[in-house]
Fold these 4 entries.
Entry 1:
Amino acid sequence: MEYFPAALEKLVEQFARLPGIGGKSAQRLAFHVLSLTDAEAQEFADAIVEAKKKVTCCPVCRNLTDGGLCPICASPKRDERVVCVVADARDVAAIERSREYTGRYHVLHGVISPMNHIGPDDLEITSLVERVAAGGIDEVIMATNPDTEGEATAMYLARLLRPFDVKVTRLAYGIPVGGHLEFADDATLMRALEGRREI
């Protein structure tokens, strides 16, 4: 038995397709959209359509942009000799929040994941190799997540970039600030010891 009109059910289904949105959250979002004025609802719909039309990938780093080079590639203040490789454009935002990194990026748009049928050809790997082969890059930082797919992707890229005269590094992992050693797992403690530095 259907509780809601078909149009509302369809809206709930569309929200439920978003990552991290379950059935109850999808219902809440759908009811919120229904509570908007016509002008607000149109503005919301227009924002989605406009983003789909205008947001593209930067021709250099494959980060998201609204046409031409992204602001990071266009900035003369960024160090073009250092490239940080990330899986997703959201990772660029996370690293930028630290305000410590001053190099450039390369966004893969995913990681190698055989279980999900994602291979190297499905990612922005060729463009990365072409960037490094062109010269002018001294270091490539692998900043993929420290999970199985992220590690496999980082190792694959490191092997691909080995023939070029470029230093390939990996982000250090370990005990989080404010964390306690007693709660750290073995792999985290091992990484923390491997990545130790002089103070």
Note: The helical segments are 6-16, 23-35, 38-54, 71-74, 89-97, 125-133, 148-161, 186-194.
Entry 2:
Amino acid sequence: MLRWFLRPLDRYVMAEWTKIFLGTSLGFPLIVTIFDLTDNLDKYLNRALPTKAIALSYVYWFPESMLLVLPAAVLFATVFSIGAFSRHSELTAAKASGISFHRFTLPIIVGAVAASAVALGLSEFVPQANKRRSELLQERKYTTGNERYNFAFAAERGRVYRATMLNVERGYLEGLEIERKGLETDSTYPTWILSANNAMFTPAKGWTVKQGAFHVVPARGRNIAISFDSLRDRSMQESPRDLMASPKAPADMGYEDLGRFIEALERSGSDVNALRVERALKIAVPITCVIIAFFGMPLATSNQRGGAAYGIGLSLGTTIVFLIMIQLTKAVGGRGVITPEMAAWVPNVVFGLIGLIMLSRVRT
């Protein structure tokens, strides 16, 4: 099977596609990085950040930039490579040799699948990279304001904090609830919920939680509830100023972390449809790399003499339409008109069906 796939023609098609794909997926993030650095350099220098920290922060930002551009990179590589094969009559020669269009473009599909796998891996790595970048740029240190009301905060180790009021100057939390999601398959790691009237912070002792109850909710067996007058939560390592940081964006949470955050907000009665759409997009967007390849292959054969300008216009136009459709379906799913999961997958389904129909009409 491997020898059958690694024929000289397959290697040639894969090499041509890969050159364009790598140039796009690495080049676009580099351009965005230059623009962002130009806009924010004064701000970073005013914070007296070391040059090494600024440079390293953009290294950690690169995976997120690359993740955003991967579907477009697959489309650009597909349109330009197949367009070049058509203009240079290489596709015609392959057909004359008994190689169908579908077989000829098989290496491109393999490349798109590999791009989807990379995108899935990046989607889980990006939150950790963004956290490290925030630390390097000291974003939390420069948050403004001293009070915050009715908020939820996604902490480390699967913990979610909810509070009705935070006062940074006093180091005071009111109406605190802490939830740690457990594992249904592990009875030694149960879900627990801590609720308290208030909590006080001191730099020496950390957070002292007062007048509340601790509920253990195991996967099997009876629930356990323990009332307390006060306790010290050593795992709550965030300072009051840390809790003033803006809520984590869905892009800053992995799939499982975002799921735990959604479940915690659901139990508090919050509307989580928009977050559910974002969670589903963490799977749908990487799969877009394969869908967009099926869509781009027949488009690339529609004008063999269009040249580079045609390829650029076609790729950009398709990308813009796809992004607009994602934004529209996110809005529809966020309002509950359709299920959030369906909203996330609608663009893929639409483009996939259109791509398969056009692909079936290509002369093979």
Note: The chain has a mean pLDDT of 84.
Entry 3:
Amino acid sequence: MFFSGTFEHTLDERGRLAIPARYRPAFVDGGVLRRGPEGAIEMYTQQSFDEEVQRRIGAVDGSNRSEAARMIRREFLPDSYNVDLDRQGRVLIPPQLRDESTENNGRILVIGCGDYLELWHPDRWIEERARVANAARASEVHG
């Protein structure tokens, strides 16, 4: 499934987030949440997560046991948490990931990013959109 679009949802008091209905079939076998480098929470299907791990490890030298591959694992996997959809199509955001990314009366933006979703605090998403727009303008000027 290709994820696109922006959806506003709210965390409930227990830290559960409803996944947009159109994306729920992709997560029937569960998913993986991890802290992204820009402050969002990334949500992968199990398959896309496995592919991303293999892509990152393969990019360093093709060996699963090299020091570089171990470093990739240590950077990417420790902040990753397996999640399952409940009967209402919600996932529990682990407490380790519920911080500044999810504060704001529980409002979260679910952003489609192709092979995964990003979960953003609305104010941080506005900042990120401005950063992306500035980078795009700079590349047009220098490109």
Note: DSSP finds three helices and eight strands in the chain.
Entry 4:
Amino acid sequence: MQDKIETSAEAAEAAALPRCYEVHASPNAESGAKDLPGQLKKPVASKSPAQWAYERLILYIQNFEKTLDADHEVAMGFTGGDAGVMRIEGMGYFDPDIITFYGSDATGARTQLVQHVSQLNVMLRALPKSVQDKPANRIGFRLAADLEES
């Protein structure tokens, strides 16, 4: 049931705006509709596929980091081949359709993944933080802050 009467234009605009909805098995996890940051509320048609994927990945990374304790950092696992896991240290996009991840692999070697949005398949993982006497790196919050400034 609809609580608010909308004009045809408002209904069409609302249908084109991004939405996020999740359901989790754990009673401690938040389920339901998610409030999106201002940048993500813009109509999808006004963004390139790369920008749209980049912005949503930031949201997923930030939400994943909220579940981590002080001894773990976010990393990504890759499917196919020998790519393994990369600790996320940066992320970007190149319009219209490329996403780039920057980081380091399990040996500490600098790593960069350049991926077409049509091939995007990322698994977020928790890894023990790289330096025990430093606070865990929270890249999702830095990415989100940069997104709000742009």
Note: The longest strand covers residues 85-94.
